[in-house]
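job 3f2a | input accepted
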Amino acid sequence: MKLRFLILLILFGSFSVSCRESIDPDALKVYDGPINSATNIFLVQSDSAIVRSEITAAKQLEFLDGNIEFPEGIEIKFYTKEGQLETTMRADRGYFIQSENLYRGEGDVQIQNLLKDQKLQTEEIFWDQPRKKIYTDKFVTIQERQTLFNGTGMEADDSFSEYTLKQVRDSRTLLPGEGI
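job 3f2a | predicted structure (180 res):
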């Protein structure tokens, strides 16, 4: 009797193992793609009913960790305390890094202070919104009125009205029709 029971147990065990489906390991991977997507984004930040900044983007992808990606570009506009448009910032691609509360723009990055006639061009920029600072460690070209400055690394307030250019390489006066 015990022998029959043992034989049946062995046969049943071998059938259950041999009939098992093989599992694709890729099917068990955790999804880390976007959990939400939106188009034609327009975000406004205001203080005391006065617009302080606007963010526009054609597409936004939100991830589970709180990070946000703007794969088709991003534009940020900064306004004075009086509500006048002061500065624009554009990038080919944008990112919001939740853990650091930091925006990053990359690709063709252009910043323009309309009130001071200043322009900046670089390939990567960071905007630390709580500290109201923008910065980069990449090569930067700044046009201030009729003078062009080149350097590596820059730090400024988020209106780009006061800046510090690091590792200045050269500067020169622009010829008529030149500019960035």
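job 3f2a | Helices lie at 2-18.
job 3f2a | closed
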